[in-house]
Amino acid sequence: MTHEELKAKALSNPKVKEEYDNLAPEFSLLRGMLLAREDSGLSQAEIAFRMGTKAPAITRLESSLTSGKHSPSLATLKKYAKAVNCHLEIKLVHN
What we know:
Number of domains: 1
Helix content: 55-70%
CATH architecture: Orthogonal Bundle
Radius of gyration: 16 Å
Number of helices: 6
Number of strands: 0
CATH class: Mainly Alpha
CATH topology: 434 Repressor (Amino-terminal Domain)
Order of helices and strands: HHHHHH
Distance between the termini: 35 Å
Shape: elongated
Strand content: under 5%
Structural class: mainly alpha
């Protein structure tokens, strides 16, 4: 079974689909962060230095968005954005 087939099978369950959809904002933010890091050409260690922290903190920050164990503060997200030469935008969108 391929990854796409497994994903399709899992998402055919309404409860799984609901949880998956609920994680969309976190995955979107993570995708943006990883792309910004890649575009900046910086390593996690270099970003950590710019933020005044250690590399494991950046690993935890990036992984926290998928684990749901911790939600980073806006201040932390702003520091990350600045470190990768970006700015943070947050907006509310009507359903």
